[in-house]
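Reviewer 2 asked us to include a model.

Predict the structure of this chain.
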Amino acid sequence: MSFFDSEIVQQEAKQLFEDYQSLIQLGGNYGKFDREGKKMFIEQMEALMDRYRIFMKRFELSEDFMAQMTVEQLKTQLGQFGLTPQQMFDQMNRTLEKMKGEIET
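Predicted model (structure tokens):
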């Protein structure tokens, strides 16, 4: 069975995408959030990034050809911006840490 034929993989991919879309839409109003709302938004983004990191690790560890191609496509796409997947996650974490710092002051 192919990596992408797995119902679990399909469901997690769908849920990640939906959750990401919802958070991005919600984030459009971030400036209007009170302090607790901002904290909740950041926590949800951190949780989503953790889920995404685990999901991508599954791709990396899989021996499935399509999973490996997906990893290579991501690397190529990020490489166009001078980034590696790890740098992308590091940048996301720095952004979230900066956002945390801004609400602490």
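The chain has a mean pLDDT of 93. The chain is about 80% helix and 0% strand. We have added this to the supplementary material.
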